[in-house]
Every structure is written in structure tokens, then in C-alpha cells.
Design a protein that fits this description.
This protein is α/β, with parallel strands linked by helices and about 450 residues long. About 45% of the residues lie in helices and about 15% in strands. The radius of gyration is 24 Å and the shape is globular. The N and C termini lie far apart (about 80 Å).
Length: about 450
């Protein structure tokens, strides 16, 4: 018997296949295990064939360097194995048990950290804010700036709430989180007295550092920041998992998604089957052609902080030695009414990477009215997400026609599983991107320079 299958990609035709019992099982499994994918058709036409062939050879060299851990910064490539290690080590169960011990005592969590110590967990929390919040704790972020207005407001809020504190710092001396921790720690000590120790959790170095010393002196529960993973690659370690678990996020699904993506990224050398290779080669090709700004575009504001995390990941990893793409972000359709003109007709310095979300869990249809006074009855029955996707398709075509290359990252749905996939895909592509540029993707000497200057002026 022959049947026609709907395509997994909307740009593909239906497939005619011979059907039997095993066929239906495969179809069912394929739909369940659907993976984030890359669509490069709107940037490929900008790339000369001879350039693509040259870059392909460089891509495989960078891939081997990353997978074999032989390049600069190889001592910080532990994140490659993190999803599997998290499953095998039992850390998820340990974190979950800890959360269950404290959860009934608190209304909210204060997460103190900066850069990679908070951006990943904030990105995931914001992306999932549409989910049911019945089991969620409120999460406040502090220590990511030096802002007395914000911290004063937070302390007044904490006066009225039962809270716990998660402080994240490798050393404990990074200025922004160190200041916030001193102030919030004092507030918690006054509020809870001797019982404060069970409400403060330190995520820090395993053997050394100011924060570890403070944690030991005060008997705080501690989790380890692995020495072989830098901050911006740490969201799938306790740095991200502990705050997310306390907030009510399903960290098991997050890690499962990352692990499934890791199996593809690490083991698949065929570019057509490896989304990280597809993304890396498209980005580097654009860079080689003189498009030096990558504009991350989302059509759902829930993904704004995914872009913020992505900007740190790629900006700190690639921006060295006078090289690298400048990572910028925007939210459509909102910003089409402010930046749309420049993107369409301005300097040809950028290309777009669009986060395309196929379906959403909460949507609303446009109602019909009797008199159609606003002239919108032609949209009646369509959902906002359907209209949003049409706006995305129309905008993409207009920008590509105007000379703006476009990459699409296709995300089946916003949930923990696919966010885990997306995080790992970006991390792996970022490692490859650094080696393509012939820079160390895992250090940040420019950041250290500003810190030294600031300490000199403060002392």
C-alpha cells in the first residue's frame, strides 16, 4: 500500500512511500523526535560555489579540532560532554532532591551572577514564561549590573517574601555579583538569623576562591562550576540547572534535548545532517563575503533573552584579534517599525538569523464582527501565530530580495527539550566558528582588561 506523507519541512513536497507496520512506527517516532533544523536556502545564493568549497575544507578542519580537543583553549571544552555526564552522574536527581527539601519554605529565588552566570538561566526562564506557573517560584536576578535603584527596589520586595539566594561566581571577587551578594546576604541574615545558612546556595569553584571560603565558613550548600567549562558555556551545568530547577523548570527534559543534539553535532560529519555544521558554514561564509554583523531575529518576545545569551556566547568567543562577527539582535514585528528601513535599504553590513518557531502552546484566534468596522473580518478565524508566521515569510522574502542574506533556525516548539537542543547547537557551532577564525574561542582577554582598569580606579 502506498501513502503520501506530509513533509517535515513546509518547503518540501509530500512523500510517497510503501506503508507497512514498521513504516507507521518510523513516522510516529520521527514526529516525536523532531529536531531543530537549519534552512540556509536564503543565504546560499549569495555564496560563490568556489568559496563554499574552500570553506567546507576549513570547516572540517575546525570540526576535527573541536571534537578531538586539540585546539587553543582545549582545557575549556568540557561542555562538549556535559549533557551525557549530567545524565550519568546523577546530578539532576541530586539537584531535584535539594529543591524538594527547600521549595515549601520559599516564595522566590534571588539569583546573583553576571554574564554566563545568569544569562542562560534567564533566557530559558523567559522563553518558558508562557507555561503554567502553578509550581513556579518567582525569580529575581541581581548582581548583573551596578545599579542602586534596582537593588533598593529588590530589597523592599524581599522584605515581604520568603526567599532563598543562589550566588554564582567562580572566584567570588567579580565586582558586580560580589557587591550584590554582600548586600543581599546581610538582608537575609537579619531576616532569618541562624537559619539563613539553609537558604543560601553557592555555585563556585571546587577547591579555591573567596566565595568557596565564605560558603565553608557559613555552612552553605555548594555546587561546583567545572574547571574545564567557561562561564558562557556553563548553562547546562549547575550554573544554570540549579536556578532553573528551583524555579520549577524541567531540567531533565532540558538535558535530554541537549544530549540528543550533542549526539548529532559530535558524531555526524555530513554537513547535510549536522545543523551545527550548517549554521557554522553559513555564518563564516557571510563573514568572508563582508557581512560583518549577524542580526538574530525573533518573532516571539519570549526569545529576547535567548538572543542576549547568544550575543555573549558568540561575542566573547569570536571577537578577538580584530576578527569576528558582531552579534546583534532584534524582535519582529515590533522592530520592523524602527529598524526595518535600515535592514531593507541601509548599508549592506549585516545578515539575519531568524529563530522560526513552528507552533506555540498558547494562541488566540481573531474573532469576526457583524459590521466589520475595522475591516479585519478577512482575518477572522486565523490565529495570531498564523499571522505572525505569514509576516515572517513576507519579511524574509523582502529582505532577501533587498540583498540581505538570511538563515532560518527552525524550532518545532518552545519547551525545555528544544531549548536544550538550541543551546547545545549554538555552543557547538560557536566552538567551530572560533577555530574557523583562527582564534581561541574559550578565553576573553578583552574583558579582563576592563576589569583591571576598574579595580585600579576604585582602589
Amino acid at each position: 500500500m502506498c501513502i503520501y506523507l506530509p513533509p517535515f519541512d513546509s518547503d518540501q513536497p509530500a512523500l510517497k512511500v510503501e506503508a507497512n507496520a514498521s513504516t507507521f512506527f518510523f513516522i510516529f517516532a520521527k514526529k516525536i523526535m523532531k529536531q531543530i533544523s537549519i534552512n540556509n536556502k536564503h543565504c546560499q545564493k549569495f555564496i560563490p560555489v568556489e568559496l563554499y568549497d574552500i570553506i567546507t575544507n576549513e570547516l572540517y578542519s575546525a570540526f576535527d579540532t573541536l571534537v578531538n580537543k586539540t585546539g587553543e583553549g582545549k582545557e575549556f571544552t568540557g561542555w562538549i560532554d556535559t549533557p551525557k555526564l549530567s545524565i550519568d552522574s546523577g546530578i539532576i536527581e541530586k539537584i531535584t532532591n535539594h529543591v524538594n527539601q527547600i521549595a515549601k519554605k520559599i516564595d522566590s529565588i534571588v539569583v546573583i551572577g553576571i554574564g554566563g552566570s545568569y544569562l542562560g538561566s534567564k533566557a530559558i526562564l523567559n522563553a518558558l514564561e508562557h507555561q503554567s506557573k502553578s509550581k513556579r517560584k518567582k525569580v529575581y536576578f541581581a548582581g548583573n549590573d551596578i545599579n542602586g535603584i534596582n537593588l533598593s527596589k529588590l530589597l523592599k520586595t524581599l522584605d515581604k517574601e520568603e526567599y532563598a539566594v543562589i550566588v554564582i561566581s567562580k572566584s567570588g571577587t567579580t565586582l558586580e555579583p560580589a557587591i550584590a551578594f554582600r548586600i543581599i546576604k546581610q538582608h537575609a541574615e537579619k531576616k532569618y538569623g541562624a537559619a539563613v545558612s539553609e537558604r543560601i546556595i553557592a555555585i563556585t569553584d571546587e577547591k579555591d576562591g573567596t566565595l568557596l571560603k565564605i560558603a565553608k565558613e557559613n555552612n552553605y550548600k555548594t555546587y561546583v562550576i567545572p574547571n574545564n567549562i567557561g562561564g558562557r558555556f556553563s548553562v547546562l551545568t549547575p550554573v544554570g540547572l540549579v536556578p532553573l530547577a528551583f524555579s520549577g523548570i524541567n531540567i531533565s527534559e532540558l538535558i535530554k534535548g541537549a544530549n540528543d543534539m550533542a549526539q548529532v553535532c559530535v558524531n555526524e560529519r555530513d554537513i547535510s545532517k549536522n545543523p551545527a555544521l550548517q549554521y557554522a558554514i553559513a555564518r563564516y561564509s557571510m563573514y568572508a563575503l563582508g557581512f560583518h554583523v549577524e542580526l538574530m531575529v525573533n518573532y516571539l518576545s519570549q526569545l529576547n533573552y535567548v538572543s542576549e545569551w547568544w550575543k555573549q556566547l558568540f561575542g566573547e568567543s569570536e571577537g578577538k584579534d580584530g576578527k569576528g562577527l558582531f552579534p546583534a539582535s532584534t524582535s519582529f514585528t515590533t522592530d520592523l517599525h524602527s529598524l526595518g528601513q535600515f535592514i531593507q535599504s541601509g548599508s549592506r553590513i549585516l545578515f539575519e538569523t531568524v529563530l522560526h518557531v513552528e507552533s506555540i502552546s498558547n494562541d488566540i484566534a481573531i474573532p469576526t464582527t457583524d459590521n466589520d468596522s475595522d475591516g479585519l473580518n478577512y482575518l477572522a478565524g486565523k490565529t495570531l501565530h498564523q499571522i505572525n508566521k505569514i509576516a515572517e515569510k513576507a519579511t524574509t522574502q523582502a529582505h532577501v530580495d533587498g540583498g540581505v542574506p538570511n538563515i532560518s533556525i527552525n524550532i518545532p516548539k518552545i519547551n525545555e527539550y528544544y531549548l536544550g537542543q538550541l543551546i547545545y547547537l549554538f555552543e557547538f557551532a560557536c566552538g567551530i566558528g572560533g577555530y574557523l577564525l583562527d582564534v581561541n574561542p574559550f578565553d576573553q582577554p578583552g574583558v579582563e582588561n576592563y576589569k583591571r582598569n576598574m579595580f585600579k580606579l576604585l582602589r
